[in-house]
Amino acid sequence: MHLPVLFNEALHEIAIKPAGIYIDCTFGRGGHSRGILEKLGTKGQLLALDRDLDAIQSEVGQELIKDPRFQLEHCCFSQLQQVVEKRDWQGKVDGILMDFGVSSPQLDNAQRGFSFMRDGPLDMRMDCSSGLSAAEWLASVSEEDLVRVLFDYGEERFARRIARAVVTQRVEKPLVTTQQFVDLLIEAIPFKEKHKHPATRSFQAVRIAVNRELEEITTVLDQAVNVLSSGGLMAVISFHSLEDRIVKRFIRDESRGKYTSSKLPQQPEELAAIRLIKRGKAIKASQQELAENPRARSAVLRIAQRR
Length: 307
Description:
Layout: H1 7-13, E1 21-24, H2 31-39, E2 45-50, H3 53-56, H4 59-64, E3 70-74, H5 80-86, E4 93-99, H6 104-108, H7 134-140, H8 143-154, H9 159-172, H10 178-188, H11 200-211, H12 213-227, E5 228-238, H13 241-254, H14 268-273, E6 276-278, H15 287-292, E7 300-306
Parallel strand pairs: 1-2, 1-4, 2-3, 4-5
Antiparallel strand pairs: 5-7, 6-7
Helix pairs in contact: 8-9, 8-11, 12-13
């Protein structure tokens, strides 16, 4: 069985009750969902979401839906509140788990276009049934917007050179494969970083833009607080600083009053505005997990509790 990064830590932190209601917002390979089901009793319930139809139709997904305690829904996690209201679970959810980023099966499948190490269609969509592919997005995005995306989402120092190269290239021949995009990036970037492929930052940036990943995170965090029961727990695993920064700031802001001066006592209206209780420091992978899975080195787990 494939174990997700920080698997044991995440399941421990959401303190699963045998008869509780839980939501796995990012089903993926089903590792977290399987782990939660193992801890649930006969009256417990688990709902898993995934915008990737491949995950829904996977062998693990089809196996787990045979369990009467388990439901699996094809949707973005930003639709969390909608699927919860449909089940009349508003304010009744005991725990929510989110594991952001791209999954190994998505990277390993060249046809999905996520990896710069495998040639295939330049797609990058988490949900192949909707939205623009990366090729379509690159064919239509303005040069200035592309510069902003590459710089903001990929922290790419050569964003302007790359954007100019994309705009010039697409006039002559559209970018339709990952290898075409990789070749353009290698040509456009004058200095190569040690131990980092020249396409790393741009592939991340375009993927985030195509899937609106950061907007999705902002939306689901706010919805998660609304659907949790009092005392309900939220566990969030991020894989890069852009994701973690959003999570960290959200938990910080929701666990403070309107005013933050430590010199003044909090007023009733300030206390009423507090929706979350921060639960300890960020959790990172152990040395043992890092040795077994180098991908875990960038993972950060943050926990918060509904007030």
